[in-house]
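Priority: low. Protein: Cupin domain-containing protein. Input follows.
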Amino acid sequence: MFKLNENEKEYRFGDSGPKYLMKGPRLNFAVVQFQPGQDFPAHYHNIMEENFYIMEGEIDIVVDDKVNHMKKGDFIHIEPGEIHYVKNNSDKKIVMISTLGPFQDSDKVEVKDFKWPQ
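Result:
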């Protein structure tokens, strides 16, 4: 067992990105925040599945060329191999929970040349 407070951790990019509260041994758990206009590069995972639960705000999550407009209370599950891209197209910050499992030390494959679906 371990216990911590979210304030003991930092977002990866200062005011945005994931803030991992736990990395392994079986899954990753993070609070994720994006300011208006911020995004995270398109990528997929070979082994890990990823989940997002929206706590505050609205965000667009593209999964395999389908734009999913997400708002507070929405949940999305992303299977291994599904290309996903996250962008805050709103004028307010977004806060969401992310889980990734089963834990892998490195399982993110960035997708170059990603284009927003028509």
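The chain has a mean pLDDT of 96. The CA atoms of residues 60 and 69 lie 5 Å apart.
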